């Protein structure tokens, strides 16, 4: 239980977050600069690499019995591997496990026990899935979140919905994320090659 709590405290800080608190988290969550990414990746690797491996091995499955420990497990299987294994196939190796936790958690209403900010990351495996039906559920979930978001954080939740819509549009068009093809050693289709040659948004992670 302490390990699960440590993960959430690391990722979210002290909840509920005010706008200034969210601003301080963005570099960790979505940092786009190479140096920001490097720092975040190394920090998560140094603190949580062993827990990520345990989660991948199924050793932490009991965490799913509690909504917030389930969220911690989703972070270990979905967000953290993208930092620790950036640019490799292992970044996506536990995506299906995270997706299963999100879907079953939604079916059991585990997400209803979380704050809107926590639910951004509870639903993230939907956004990362190369499945059209998951992407449709993702857009619907983030649309609901925007309606429920605190007024002072509406801009963040509007960005989350736009990201979900963009991910969904890519999977609707190609059935997968072309930016993962190189890492996963998949051959580009001619349409994907043309798409990748342009300055399109990249979702390689």
CATH homologous superfamily classification: Tetratricopeptide repeat domain
Please name the CATH topology.
Serine Threonine Protein Phosphatase 5, Tetratricopeptide repeat
Give the terminus-to-terminus CA distance.
29 Å
Largest sheet: none
Number of helices: 10
Strand content: under 5%
Order of secondary-structure elements:
HHHHHHHHHH
- Structural class, by secondary structure, is mainly alpha
Number of domains: 1
Percent helix among the residues? 55-70%
- Tell me how many strands there are: 0
Which spans have pLDDT < 50 for at least 5 consecutive residues?
A: none
What's the CATH C level? Mainly Alpha
Radius of gyration: 16 Å
Under the CATH scheme, the architecture is: Alpha Horseshoe
Q: What overall form do the CA principal axes indicate? A: globular
Mean pLDDT: 93
Summarize the structure.
This protein is mainly α and 205 residues long.
Structure characterization notes:
- The longest helix is centred in the first third of the chain and has 23 residues, at 34-56.
- It is built from ten helices and no strands.
- 66% of the residues lie in helices and 0% in strands.
- Helix 1 (2-12) packs across helix 4 (67-84), helix 3 (34-56) packs across helix 4 and helix 4 (67-84) packs across helix 6.
- With 205 residues, it is mostly helical.
- The radius of gyration is 16 Å and the shape is globular.
- The chain starts with a helix and ends in an 8-residue tail after the last helix.
- The protein has helices spanning 2-12, 19-30, 34-56, 67-84, 95-107, 116-122, 124-128, 132-148, 154-174, 190-197.
- The chain has one domain: Tetratricopeptide repeat domain (Serine Threonine Protein Phosphatase 5, Tetratricopeptide repeat).
């Amino acid at each position: 239980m302490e390990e699960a709590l440590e993960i959430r405290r690391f990722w979210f800080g002290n909840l509920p977050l005010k706008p200034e608190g969210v601003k301080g988290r963005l570099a960790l969550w979505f940092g786009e600069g190479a140096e920001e990414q490097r720092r975040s990746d190394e920090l998560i690797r140094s603190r949580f690499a062993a827990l990520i491996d345990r989660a991948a091995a199924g050793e932490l499955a009991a965490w799913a019995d509690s909504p917030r420990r389930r969220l911690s497990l989703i972070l270990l299987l979905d967000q953290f591997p993208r930092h620790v294994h950036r640019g490799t196939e292992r970044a996506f190796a536990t995506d299906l496990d995270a997706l299963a936790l999100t879907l079953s958690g939604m079916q059991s209403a585990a997400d209803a026990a979380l704050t809107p900010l926590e639910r951004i990351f509870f639903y993230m495996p939907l956004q990362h899935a190369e499945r059209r039906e998951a992407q449709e559920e993702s857009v619907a979930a983030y649309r609901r979140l925007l309606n429920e978001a605190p007024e002072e954080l509406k801009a963040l939740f509007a960005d989350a919905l736009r990201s979900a819509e963009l991910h969904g549009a890519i999977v609707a068009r190609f059935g997968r994320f072309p930016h993962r093809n190189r890492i996963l050693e998949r051959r580009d289709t001619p349409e994907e090659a043309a798409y990748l040659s342009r300055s399109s948004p990249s979702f390689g992670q």
